Amino acid sequence: METAQSVRTAFDLTGRVALVTGAGGSIGRTTAEVLAAAGATVICADVNGPAATETASGILGLGGRAESAELDVSVRGAAEALVGHIAARHGGLHVMCNIAGIMIDSTIIDLDPDEFDRILSVNLKGVVYGCQAAGKVMVAQGGGSIVNMASAAVLAPAPGIGPYAICKAGVAQLTQTMAVEVGEYGVRVNTVAPGFVPSNMTARYYTNPDGTVNEETKAAMVKPMARMTPLRRVGVTSDIAYCVLYLASDASSFVTGQLLSPNGGVSMHY
Ligand SMILES: NC(=O)c1ccc[n+]([C@@H]2O[C@H](COP(=O)([O-])OP(=O)(O)OC[C@H]3O[C@@H](n4cnc5c(N)ncnc54)[C@H](O)[C@@H]3O)[C@@H](O)[C@H]2O)c1
User: Does 125 lie in the same domain as 219?
Assistant: First the structure.
């Protein structure tokens, strides 16, 4: 019979080691905090080293377990070196969250080739490298959970942010293929595809030249988005982090190769 204890245990990450990329950013930081609050030791990694350190410090300040690392996911071998270091230090890696990402605004026709290379390197190759590094360790240890961050942009045409959506569609495909390849070793691979969440990334739409938030522009953007969403709101970072917790934990032990869409119901796929 399921009990309060067995349900709590299903979501409990005590004794697990988790690596979160993009942990200095909005969704990555909340995800690191949630995984740590669920008991994991979280390695907070970001190309922005001080931001990663700030996330880890916040977790440590609340009595959680965390470390930080400067990591550029687009650099070949960088994720593998970090994962190797984590596995040697902690005896394994149980959860890998590939959350680091960047955005460029461009139509397909106007897409600058260098910008295309840049976004492919971070948003697609960076996730591949992260999956490879974590996957090798997890296959060898006989289990683990990889969670990749895509976007609602993969569920519909994405005019103006096509290069970003192309990468995220690649992430969804990568997830399915890898899930089939590593399933027999007890390794699960899933994608989270968030809808709009006000964050450092989306702030470019409503930030004044002096760096302050233009609340009027923000409201003008967010309100219509909320109106066209069945749940009548945009997301908050914890909406996404709790999906990651579910996929990272034993509560989702029969779930792999899936795309989970915390988006208020704005785009449904059948
Ligand atoms: N905010 C949204 O509405 C939304 C919606 C769908 C998907 N997402 C995805 O969620 C993830 C997090 O986005 P966010 O909104 O929190 O943005 P954010 O800008 O707050 O966080 C992104 C983080 O990734 C880090 N990063 C960038 N390049 C990196 C690199 N080469 N190596 C390591 N770290 C790097 C940044 O320093 C930053 O801390 C991204 O993958 C994004 O595409 C966001």
Answer: no
Q: Which domain holds residue 24?
A: 9-195+236-260
For residue 27, the ligand 1 atom closest to its alpha carbon is: 16
Q: How confident is the model at residue 269 (pLDDT cuts 50, 70, 90)?
A: low
Both 254 and 218 in one domain: the answer is no
Question: What's the pTM?
Answer: 0.97
| Residue of 241, 224, 220, 231 whose CA lies nearest to 263 | 231
> How confident is the model over 101-114, as pLDDT tens digits?
999 999 999 999 99
Looking at the fold, whether 96 and 153 belong to one and the same domain comes out as: yes
CB within 6 Å of ligand 1 — which residues?
Answer: 21-22, 24-28, 46-48, 51, 71-74, 99-102, 122, 126, 149, 151, 194, 196-197, 199-202
The answer to whether residue 2 is domain-embedded is no
Identity of the amino acid at 270: Y
- In the residue annotation, 164 being an active-site residue is answered as yes
Q: Are residues 165 and 207 in the same domain?
A: no
Q: What pLDDT is stored for residue 243 in this prediction? A: 98
| Residue of minimum CA distance from atom 6 in ligand 1 | 151
| 35: CATH | 3.40.50.720
In a domain, 109, yes or no: yes
Residue of 164, 206, 242, 246 with catalytic role: 164
Pair of tokens at residue 63:
């009595």
Pocket test for ligand 1, best of 33, 46, 123, 207 (most atoms within 8 A of CB): 46
27: CA distance to ligand 1 center in Å? Answer: 7
What's the structural domain count of the chain?
2
Residues 19 and 126 in one domain: yes
Angle formed by the axes of helices 78-90 and 126-141, nearest 10°? 30
Amino acid at 7: V
Q: What's the rounded mean pLDDT across residues 69-96?
A: 98
Could you read off the pLDDT of 201-249 as tens digits, one per residue? 999 889 999 989 999 999 999 999 999 999 999 999 999 999 999 999 9
Helix ranges, the chain (H):
4-11, 26-37, 49-61, 78-90, 113-119, 126-141, 162-182, 215-227, 237-248
